[in-house]
Design goal:
By secondary structure, the protein is of the alpha/beta class. It has helices spanning 18-27, 45-55, 75-84, 103-112, 115-127, 129-137, and strands spanning 2-7, 30-36, 59-63, 90-93. Helices cover 44% and strands 15% of the residues. It has a four-stranded parallel sheet. β1, α1 and β2 (30-36) form a beta-alpha-beta unit. The chain is elongated and about 45 Å long.
Length: 142
């Protein structure tokens, strides 16, 4: 059994042939797909990942703030993401974590949340009571 644990078929570029993409994946042995929602946590960017997940039996969603957008995470963003997790098709939190792979992420992390400041922000996010509850309900996707 194959599972695509990280895809972005919620993007506009898939609007024309998303049904075919999901069917081709299924036909070639992909049993499930995880659409990883990304974008501004204050907008409806994530909602499209949830809508796509709800549309297909074998597609699931995750929501979280990518490291590139960590500066946008606040209490309102957390409320918005928590609301989206009420869908039974949202099975994970992510994409989250420290992305040191790309130069953009390194620049964002060092410029906006350098060193201890970034670690303290992550610590406060993970220790908030609602986040602890969220972690208990959903796995984390880094």
């Amino acid at each position: 059994m194959l599972i695509d644990s990280h895809c972005h078929i919620d993007g506009d570029s898939f609007d024309e042939d998303r049904d075919e993409v999901v069917q081709r994946a299924k036909d070639t042995g992909v049993a499930a797909m995880l659409v990883v929602g990304t974008g501004d946590p204050h907008s409806d960017d994530f909602r499209k990942a949830v809508v796509v997940a709800e549309r297909y039996e074998n597609v699931y969603g995750s929501v979280g703030v990518h490291p590139h957008d960590a500066k946008l995470y606040d209490d309102e963003a957390e409320k918005h993401l928590t609301e989206l997790t009420k869908s039974e098709k949202v099975i994970a939190w992510g994409e989250i974590g420290l992305d040191f792979y790309t130069i953009t992420a390194r620049a964002t992390c060092s410029a906006k949340f350098s060193g201890d400041r970034f670690a303290r922000r992550l610590n406060s996010i993970f220790r908030s009571s609602s986040t602890v509850e969220m972690r208990m309900m959903r796995p984390l996707r880094f």
